[in-house]
Amino acid sequence: MIIFRLIGESFRFAADALIQNKLRTMLSLLGITIGIFTIIAVFSGVDTLRNKLQESVDKLGSNTLFVQKWPWGGFGDYPWWKYMNRPEPTLRDYQALKGRLEHADGISYEVSSRNRVIKYRSSSVEGATLNAATHDYHITWTLDFQEGRYFTDNESRSGSPVAILGAEIANGLFGGSSAMGKQIKVMGRRLTVVGVFKKEGEDMLGMSQDNNVLIPLNFAKGLFDIQNSNYDPTITVRGKSYIALEEVESELQGAMRSIHRIRPGVEDDFSLNKTTMISNQLDIMFKMVRIAGWVIGGFSILVGGFGIANIMFVSVKERTNIIGIQKSLGAKNYFILLQFMFEAVALCLMGGLLGLLLVYSLTLVVTYGFGIKVVLDSANIIMGISISVVIGVISGFWPAYSASRLDPVEAIRS
């Protein structure tokens, strides 16, 4: 109980010193405030951007593989000349894979034609992406509908002139009215709308269906060359949920090598892309941003720490005679030590909390002013408070220790 009482008295002494020197207190904690603000603001921004990008990546599916000519990446030392002469995935590859893969829930062949104009009577929407796919597209991708349905098996096989619209396309053509059964015009051909995708909102990786139009692949054969590289042909394979992605990938790689008759020891002439590749690249990129935040904020905190240490030495000098009186009345060394340690920690904590308050204010401005939801999570708050406490302990220890070692007689004389 005596220890707790002494700690309480130390805290009161520290609080009194801070209150009596308000201007000095505010100037001292500015460095800590700026440092904590910089670090936590960068981390909150990185976490927000990381979550947004990860949401886009998750739409691809954690158990999905994409057979393509080019591997995902393109950063750093990217040997593009190695992939230039690779063949594009073909319908023959797709048909062969359908009969060979046992670990796949669905396999689809997809192509995309961008910047198309979609018309309905006097209305039109520009910049739409026209996607064409085989029937299993609804298995390899997660599709949500706000009205209508997916293609029937007969519509996909026969290449019926039907289409599913993204929410933005439907809204641009029909306003608030239903799109079901209405005929639109795409590349000079009429198609009947059988469904509308649920609105997904803006997507940082362009994975949203809002500005897409989906048609059966067999119908698209009459519009353009579906195996041309300009339309980015892709074979998408979604593995069974209870089978590891590595097993699905191994089976798919073996099947593709067999279909392309690649001899043992010869490098693949195709790429198997997966979401973990994007996630790994994002981790590397955001790790560098975090390091930059630590460096920038760290310098500010370092300056703030020196400032607080300097102020604490001044405070010890000003109260030397008071320290002498306290020690002559029986105050222990640890009481004097704790008194100044609490003062240093309180300074840093106030600076840290002010920095967190500024970050929170910034998140509100960005969220409500620009419509971008920024999250200040508990982990970043705890980290900001922890950094403040650590800096306070480090900055205040030596001034506090020197105060606790003062000779009471010499201190009173001063």
Automatic annotation (TrEMBL):
Membrane topology category: Multi-pass membrane protein
Subcellular location: Cell membrane
Main location: membrane
Domain MacB-like periplasmic core as annotated: residue spans: 25-253
Gene Ontology CC, one term: plasma membrane
Source domain of life: Bacteria
Keyword presence, Transmembrane helix: yes
Chain segments annotated as transmembrane: 27-46, 291-313, 334-361, 381-401
Keywords carried by this UniProt record: Cell membrane, Membrane, Transmembrane, Transmembrane helix
Positions of the ABC3 transporter permease C-terminal domain: 295-408
Any one Gene Ontology molecular-function term assigned to this protein's record: transmembrane transporter activity
Keyword Nucleotide-binding applies: no
Annotated PANTHER family: ABC TRANSPORTER PERMEASE, MEMBRANE COMPONENT OF TRANSPORTER-RELATED
Name the record gives this protein: ABC transporter
Species this protein is from: Pedobacter antarcticus 4BY
